[in-house]
Amino acid sequence: MSTAALLGQDPGWITLVKGLLVFVFCVVCTLMAIWAERKVVARMQMRIGPNRVGKFGLLQSLADGVKLALKEDLIPAAADKVVFIIAPIISATTCFMAFAVIPFTGTVTLFGHKTAMQLTDLPVSVLYILAIASIGVYGIVLAGWSSGSTYPLLGGLRSSAQVISYEVAMGLSLVAVFIYSGSMSTSEIVAAQHQWWFSVILFPSFVIYVISMVGETNRAPFDLAEAEGELVGGFHTEYSSLKFALFFLAEYVNIVGVSALATTLFMGGYHALPGLTFTESWLGGWFTLFWFVAKISAFFFLFIWLRGTLPRLRYDQFMKFGWKVLIPTSLVWILVLATLRVMSQRAVSRPLVIGFSIGVVLLVMLATTLYDRSTEKAKAANVLPDLPAPRFPVPALPGQSLITHVQEIEAEAEMENHNG
Amino acid sequence: MLHNSFHFALTVGRTATPEAVQFWILAPLAVIAALGILVVKKAVHSALLMAWVMVTLAIFYIAEDALFLGIVQIVVYTGAVMMLFLFILMLVGVDSSESFVENLKGQRIPSILAAIGLGGLMVSLVGRATVSAPAVGLKDANSDGNVQGLAKLLFTQYVWAFEVVSALLITAALGAMVLAHSQKIRSPFAQRDLSIARFRKDSMAEAAGLPAPGVYARHNAVDVPALLPDGSPAPTSVSQTLRSRGDIITSSGFALESIEEQED
Questions:
Q1: Among A119, A125, A124, which residue's Cα sits nearest to residue A100?
Q2: Any alpha helices (H) in A98-221, and if so which ranges?
Q3: Interchain contact, A131 vs B48, CB within 8 Å
Q4: Of B81, B98, B115, the domain-final residue
Q5: Within an 8 Å CB–CB cutoff, is residue B36 touching chain A?
Q6: Is B229 exposed, middle or buried (0-12, 13-18, 19+ CB in 10 A)?
Q7: Is the pLDDT assigned to residue A92 strictly greater than 60?
């Protein structure tokens, strides 16, 4: 029986229980994620990280949450009050909604009822997640606008531009998954990966998705919307207390959300690693949840790793990368992929398929070679002319050699000595 | 088929109770929000209300079994178009209110006529499709699944219309880009160019950048010029804006007396 049919038989109370469990999962994940991030980043920076509250500092984020809740809630005088209050609510509600269609486990028994840990399944689940994500941006943009000051506004604008540009690349990378699985329903996409994970057969799409998911969640190195060196705190500069906590929660739930989507679409979802499929029946199927959480954690570690390693991109570099590299690459990749798919469906002979693939590779190599040549030419045309040496002890300019420069100065000094 | 196993399907042609409840809650809200678009003063508020109308429309579509259309409505309208709309509002003016100055002379009467015409067309079309004409054939259309059915129509029967519309949209987008693009006469000075220009000047005095404004124990604002080694003030250390405004304070008042005087 397909997951969709299984979910269709759920009585109302099971759906409610599942909704509650999903919510609890997200909140606990957030608490653990904040702790884990601080610990791991600390280790990467040769520090220890939080270690005061609870064993290993495990309760640190809980304590921080309580602290935030007890802080004074400020609303700036210049703020647009209604929108200022609505914005964090939009952010915090939409981030949870994406989890409604994420399959957490295979078939399991919940309170004596056979079901799957997935709240609901739609034939257009993945599109639904994209739609929810695009509503979620409203929270950030409105927060930026309603704060009534400059830095939040800039942060909000950056964030909206960022999400719009990277959502295009993300959507295009998902198209490849749709083409190969023949469905947009999350459970069917997981089912379609029982043999090969899509991260293997659709590797370029996977890479593009992973890059754009970092851009989509405003995380380092793409955290331009809250770049503390440039915009104070970006869109949430004016927020304090629980409203700020809501944004914080939304950010981490979003990270878990995109990681869960990546797991579902590319890493075989709740299925075990290849070779360990026998574990899937352990604990009456509940052990699949372990694999799901393990894969999400791997993605989350990647997020932390990126943050600990890479400096923030400049805004124009970031936009250039999105529009001029990611989107064209994914368009070409989809074109090639769709052609291959049609070939395999039409049962085209194998030599023709291989010939086509080699042709594509050669074309790409030709294009990159031509591009490299043209950039080299541009560089060669840009060389500075030979310059006379400056008459002041300064570092040599490009085009000047330092040695002759120093020699000239010394010679000059000698001449003066002679004259004096 | 697969589609039948998804549990959102409602009986076609009869308004099921949950759908009716949903309609009577959301429809008034949608209409109030739609009126609000016209009434509210701030442009961003009306944009927000419009987003709300779009979301409620999407919910209606989903309730009417057009799941794909509903989701796409959210992705396209609330996502892309509204974002662009907000962009324009923010760039044109954060608090821009409605202006009553008519830029196009005499556009009022033709536009009212066009609006009435379009309204009449819509009412007559929708009326012809709904009044005394029960909806039939939804089950057949969705028999292979809603998405598959739509795809089949779009890529077979309506492929030409679809492509023409997409070409139109791309043309419009390119047109907007061309119109909004301003041609630069020369490329802007980058950090590197500025640095080269500084070193090519006759004097090397500013090669390392302009001096910072004077910061003294008794005054640390940026409107006081720094003192050069010979004790004369350096006006270049104060920002050009302040200089042209004449907002410069002389630094002599903040300078310490000479060492001899202090020792006395």
A1: A119
A2: 125-146, 150-181, 186-192, 198-201, 203-216
A3: no
A4: B98
A5: no
A6: exposed
A7: yes
Q: What is the mean pLDDT of chain A?
A: 84
- Whether the pLDDT of residue B264 is over 60: the answer is no
Q: Is A216 on the interface with B (CB under 8 A)?
A: no
When CB atoms are compared, the residue of A135, A145, A384 closest to B90 is: A145
Q: How many distinct structural domains can be found in chain B?
A: 2
Are A12 and A90 spatial neighbours (Cβ–Cβ below 8 Å)? no
Does some domain include residue A361? no
Q: pLDDT tens digit string along A42-64?
A: 999 999 888 888 888 888 888 98
Of A186, A183, A223, A173, the residue nearest A331 (C-alpha)? A173
Q: Does residue B116 belong to any structural domain of this protein?
A: no
Per-residue pLDDT band for B250 (boundaries 50, 70, 90) equals confident
A84 located within any domain: yes
Q: Which residue has the tokens 């004259």?
A: A419
Chain B contact present for A8, CB below 8 A: yes
Q: Examine residue B173 and state whether it is found in any structural domain, yes or no.
A: no
Q: What is the pLDDT of residue B114?
A: 94
Q: Does B87 touch chain A (CB under 8 A)?
A: yes
Task: Give the model confidence (pLDDT) of A169-200 as tens digits.
Answer: 888 899 989 888 888 888 888 888 888 888 88
Residue A36, by phi and psi: left (phi above 0), alpha (psi -120 to 50) or beta?
alpha
* A164 → chain B, closest CA residue: B80
Q: What is the CATH number of the domain that holds B58?
A: 1.20.120.1200
Residue B187 lies in a domain: no
The answer as to whether A237 is a domain residue is: yes
Q: Look at residues B50, B81, B98 and tell me which one is the last residue of a structural domain.
A: B98
Task: Note the pLDDT tens digit of each residue in A218-242.
Answer: 887 888 877 777 777 788 888 888 8
pLDDT tens-digit map of A101-120: 888 887 777 777 777 788 88
Closest CB to B74 among A135, A153, A157: A135
Residue with tokens 């001899």: B260
Whether residue B66 lies inside any domain: the answer is: yes
Q: Do B207 and A135 touch (CB under 8 A)?
A: no
Compute φ and ψ for A110, nearest 5 degrees. -120, 115
Residues A334-389 have pLDDT tens digits of 998 888 888 888 887 888 888 888 998 899 899 989 988 888 888 777 666 666 65
Q: Would you say residue A200 lies in a domain?
A: yes
The two three-digit tokens of residue B106, written as one number: 């005499």
Asked if B9 is an interface residue toward chain A (Cβ–Cβ < 8 A), one would say no
Dihedral (Cα; A2, A4, A8, A11), 10-degree rounding? 90
Query: Could you list the residue range(s) of the whole structural domain that residue A223 is in?
Result: 3-348
Residue (of B50, B107, B106) closest to B79 by Cα position: B50
Query: Quick one: pLDDT at residue A56?
Result: 86
Interface ipTM: 0.73
Cβ–Cβ of B7/A138 closer than 8 Å?
Answer: no
- Could you give the angle at the alpha carbon of A23 between the alpha carbons of A19 and A28, nearest 5°? 145
Interface residue A306 vs chain B (CB under 8 A): no
- Number of alpha helices (DSSP H) and beta strands (DSSP E) in chain B: 12, 2
Find the domain containing B68 and state its range: 7-98
Best of A138, A342, A382 to disrupt the B interface (most B CBs within 10 Å) is A138
- The Cβ-side half-sphere exposure at B153, using a 13 Å CA radius, reads 9
CA–CA separation, A144 and A162 (whole Å): 14
Total tally of structural domains belonging to chain A: 1
